[in-house]
Amino acid sequence: MSKLKMLCALIGAVAVAQIAVADDSLTPKEALAMQIIELTDADAMVDAMTGQIEAQMQRQMEKRISCPAEREVAAEMTDAFASTMSEMMRSSDLRADLILAYAELFTRDELEALVEFHSSDLGRRLVEVQPEIMRRSMEAAQRMSAYMQAKMLEASATFQSRMKEIEGSCE
Question: Which of 46, 88, 97, 151 maximizes the CB count within 10 A of its CB?
Fold first, then answer.
């Protein structure tokens, strides 16, 4: 399963799943999509992702803020941000969009195969380890981002130096 599909599963939620499954207005494909969302344990994925982002924000705050009063306010902001993010990711509108995305992007046979896979031992194992895969992926992306940022700053300094060298040559 691709990272994009896992991310989509992350955004899905069980609360809406319970409401939507009871709703007779779901098409058979939408009902299968809902089943996939339930099988991927979307709430746990949302909690894991929110926790990781909140921890990252706290680490950044600790690096940049030394004043205890400012840290307290920043910690409150981090908590509020994480809470808002979690609430938004569990919204019924977002979940309804996710159901429609699955139903539109996959055939009924594909949805049935995804349900079968996520019902299997391997599918359940994937759901179990996905938070750790996501954690490691985020760490790798952060390392790569820091490296890339350093390289870009280096290149920017080089280009600024070159621009100073040619300053006035176009007049």
Answer: 46
Could you report the per-residue pLDDT of 77-130, keeping only the tens digit for each?
Answer: 888 888 888 788 777 777 888 899 999 999 999 999 999 999 999 999 999 998
Q: State the Rg of the chain over Cα.
A: 22
Domain assignment of residue 132, given as a range: 3-44+91-162
Instruction: Tell me which residue of 22, 28, 34 sits closest to 107, measured CA to CA.
Output: 28
In a domain, 56, yes or no: no
Residue 80, in any domain of the structure: no
Number of domains in the chain: 1
Buried b (16+ CB within 10 A) or exposed e, 74-104: bbeebeeebeeebeebbeeeebeebbeebbe
What is the structure's pLDDT at 2?
46
User: Distance (Å, rounded) from C-alpha 1 to C-alpha 118?
Assistant: 11
Sign of CA dihedral 83, 89, 92, 93: positive
